[in-house]
Every structure is written in structure tokens, then in C-alpha cells.
Design a protein that fits this description.
Keywords: Cell membrane, Membrane, Transmembrane, Transmembrane helix. The protein is mainly α. The protein folds into 2 domains: 209 residues, no CATH class; 179 residues, no CATH class. Helix content is 85%, strand content 0%. The two termini are 27 Å apart.
Length: 438
């Protein structure tokens, strides 16, 4: 009976987090299509230049949100007073960090963009977009922190509603600002800036949640708690950051091997991957608070059941996704290939069946990393994250690309995810067999 209850609870958390993660990924794709329509190739180029900055701000939000909410989940039952002010402390710290980002984005715009590789053709669009979006840095970070704490306080339904409402609002504002008000790319920036406000307003309803243990007390950050949150969230930070770094290396190698259309084909594959990985992120984020809670209760059997459930769901999703992508690759590619470039279609069609073999490993890897964070083993989660996004992947892109051309580039992600799964499986066997190691 207890196992059935646990499986039902896991299913609820997973479903809600998949919906929220899918909402975010679909918003990114629709936003990209709107900008492409409004500002053309220059707009897309400017967006790609600014994205690493936005990616970094999001990564800081995850760093504090996942790390802090994990501490909260582990301690809220047996040591509630220890974490009573943790949310308020991290919120203050995150807002302060966000203010620094806003100042840098507006006072050092040109040097920052030059560091990211801007040229004169895209400088104007990129500058105005960065200045507007960076104004909301504190809001973005506060939203990431709040979403994670509310979810880990047993209210995943509210976080799903907040995320989907945020996504829907941004899409509507995108259309209004870009096409009705004719603000162009700046309209997309303003729509993005307002988005976390919608989410935060909805999340305030958590104060009426009957089982709420989360409290908001603004106190000066205690650095040992901030540091503990940073340690637990660092693997998620690196995972998020690896997206931007990986795109940069992919682009450099593809430019050398096959030129612009190969890069464009990777852009198509990367957008598709964003949606597929959102499914796995939803599963991993869904099981994380439950595993952290069971770790706080020292219920090792329950932790194993939750982890296995997450991995099985990821494998089923991988099979369905891979079949759909291979069978319907041409219609999917044409959604992004507005100008119907034949080379782009050929490169992407050849890459999809190879690149997406990786999804049979990716979901399990994300679950294993979240499991390591939940059982208070951030160093091992960090080790997997470093290998997955940097140590194995980046050399694999370059070496396999030089040895086997485009096919080697597409398979580099498969190699990286496969090796990381072997490492993660070793850690799982070690800690699940001997819980005392925790």
C-alpha cells in the first residue's frame, strides 16, 4: 500500500513538472520564431549573442533555488527552525546578485557584447535587447528560487500553474509588442522582462496552502547557509551553463567542417532537443523533492523506488520521442526551415537519427544527478555534471568531428551521455547498496 501511494505521489509530481518544463521550452521556440519573423537573420543572430547572458542569469537562479530547496526539504521535518529563514535569506542574496547583473548589462553593454562576439551588423539590436532583459535579472533569479522552494514545500501544482501562466503571458505579450505595437525585437525583450512578475504573483497564493511549512522572513544572509546551497546547486548550475558553452563549441566545429547551413541544421536540432530534454528535466525535478524528503526520513527503500520510477518514465519517453523524431523528421525540420534551404534539410535529416540516440541516456543521467543532490552528495553530482557538459562532451565534439566529419559531431553527444551513464550507474550501485556512505 505504501509503495502504491509513493508511486501515485511520484506520478503527480512528475506530470506537473513535465508540463511546466514543456511550457518553458515551447515558449523559447515560439519566441525564437517571432523574433525571426520580426527582425530576420540579424535578429536571430543578436538573440544568440545575448542568450549566454540570459543563460547565466537562469543558472544562478537554479544554483540558489535547487540548492536551497534541497536543504529545506532535508531539514523541514526534523529541523524546521534551522531553515525557517533560509528562503528569505536566499531571496535577498539573489536579488542583490541580480542588481549587479542589471548594472553590468546597462553600464558595460558594449564590452560585454564584444566579449560574446558581436559585430557591427548586430550590435544595435543586441545592445537594446541586452539592456532591457538585464533589468529583470533580480526578478528572474527570485522566480527560480521561489518556484523551487514552493515545489519542495509540497505544492507542485501551483508551480506548474505559475510556469504555464508565465509562458502564456509572454507569448501573448510577444505578439502584442512585436506585431501590434511594432516594437520589433525590443518588444520581445519587454515581454521577457515582465514574465517572472506573472509567475511570482501566482506563487504568492502558496501562503494559503494548508500544508505549507515554507515561511518568508527577510534576514541578512548567513554565509554558511548560502555556501551550502551553492554547493548543492552547483551541479544544476553547470548543467544549465553547459548548454551555452556546448552551442559555442558546436558552432565553431560545424563552421570549420561544413559552414553556415550545418550550423543552421544544428540550430534546428538544438531547438528539438530543448523540447525533448524538457520532458526529462520535468521527471528529474519531479522526483527530486520526494527523494530529498525521504532522505530526511532516512527511508532508503522509498528513495530507491522513486529513483527507479523516474528512470523508467524517462526510458519510455525516450522510446516514444525517438520514434516520432525519426518517422516525422522532415515535417519537423520544415517548421524551422522557413526559406526551404535544401542543404539545411539534408544536414538536419542526417543528424536527427544520430544525435537523438543520446536521449536513451540523457533522462537517466538527469535523474541520477538529482538523486545525488537529494541524498546530500553534491560532489558526485558535480562530477557527473562536469563530465556531461564539459570534460567528455567538448573534446568529443572536436575530435569526433575532425575524425568522422558531421556524423562524428552528431554522435559526440551520444558518447558523452553514454559514458556519464556508466559513471552514474556506478555511484547508484555504491550508495544504494550501502546507505551508510551517505
Amino acid at each position: 500500500m505504501q509503495t502504491k501511494i509513493l508511486l501515485r505521489e511520484s506520478g503527480g509530481y512528475i506530470a506537473r513538472n513535465i508540463a511546466a518544463s514543456l511550457g518553458i521550452s515551447l515558449y523559447v521556440i515560439i519566441d525564437t520564431l517571432f523574433i525571426a519573423t520580426a527582425a530576420g537573420a540579424d535578429g536571430l543572430a543578436a538573440l544568440n549573442i545575448v542568450l549566454p547572458v540570459f543563460n547565466f542569469i537562469s543558472s544562478v537562479g537554479l544554483l540558489l533555488g535547487i540548492g536551497g530547496s534541497t536543504i529545506f526539504s532535508i531539514n523541514k521535518v526534523h529541523a524546521g527552525t534551522k531553515v525557517a529563514t533560509l528562503y528569505g535569506q536566499l531571496l535577498l542574496f539573489g536579488i542583490f546578485v541580480g542588481i549587479i547583473f542589471s548594472l553590468l548589462g546597462n553600464l558595460a553593454t558594449r564590452p560585454l557584447l564584444q566579449l560574446l562576439g558581436v559585430d557591427q551588423q548586430t550590435l544595435g539590436l543586441a545592445s537594446s535587447y541586452l539592456r532591457i532583459v538585464s533589468l529583470g535579472a533580480s526578478l528572474f533569479i527570485a522566480n527560480y528560487i521561489t518556484v523551487n522552494f514552493v515545489r519542495n514545500d509540497g505544492n507542485p501544482h501551483l508551480t506548474m500553474v505559475a510556469t504555464l501562466a508565465e509562458t502564456t503571458t509572454v507569448i501573448c505579450l510577444d505578439y502584442l509588442f512585436i506585431f501590434v505595437f511594432n516594437w520589433g525585437m525590443n518588444g520581445a525583450a519587454w515581454a521577457t522582462l515582465f514574465s517572472p512578475l506573472v509567475s511570482l504573483m501566482i506563487l504568492t497564493r502558496h501562503r494559503k496552502f494548508p500544508l505549507r511549512q515554507l515561511q518568508l522572513h527577510f534576514t541578512w544572509p548567513q554565509w554558511h547557509l548560502v555556501w551550502q546551497a551553492v554547493q548543492l546547486g552547483f551541479a544544476s548550475f553547470l548543467t544549465e551553463m553547459s548548454t551555452g558553452v556546448g552551442i559555442l563549441v558546436f558552432n565553431l566545429v560545424l563552421e570549420k567542417i561544413a559552414g553556415t547551413y550545418a550550423i543552421a541544421a544544428y540550430g534546428v536540432i538544438a531547438n528539438i532537443a530543448l523540447v525533448v530534454l524538457a520532458l526529462f528535466n520535468g521527471v528529474a525535478l519531479g522526483i527530486q523533492p520526494l527523494m530529498a524528503r525521504e532522505f530526511g526520513n532516512r527511508a532508503w527503500k522509498n528513495i530507491k523506488i522513486i529513483l527507479q520510477t523516474g528512470i523508467v518514465v524517462c526510458i519510455v519517453l525516450a522510446i516514444i520521442s525517438y520514434l516520432c523524431l525519426v518517422l516525422f523528421k522532415y515535417p519537423i525540420i520544415e517548421i524551422f526551415n522557413i526559406e526551404h534551404q535544401r542543404d539545411l534539410t539534408n544536414y538536419a535529416a542526417a543528424g536527427i537519427p544520430l544525435y537523438f540516440i543520446s536521449i536513451f541516456f540523457s533522462g537517466s543521467n538527469l535523474c541520477l544527478m538529482m538523486w545525488l543532490v537529494a541524498i546530500n552528495q553534491p560532489r558526485y553530482a558535480l562530477f557527473l555534471s562536469l563530465n556531461r557538459g564539459y570534460i567528455i562532451l567538448l573534446p568529443a565534439i572536436y575530435l569526433l568531428g575532425m575524425w568522422y566529419g558531421l556524423n562524428g559531431v552528431w554522435l559526440s553527444v551520444v558518447v558523452s551521455e553514454g559514458v556519464v551513464l556508466l559513471l552514474g550507474s556506478f555511484f547508484a550501485q555504491r550508495f544504494l547498496k550501502n546507505p551508510l556512505l551517505n
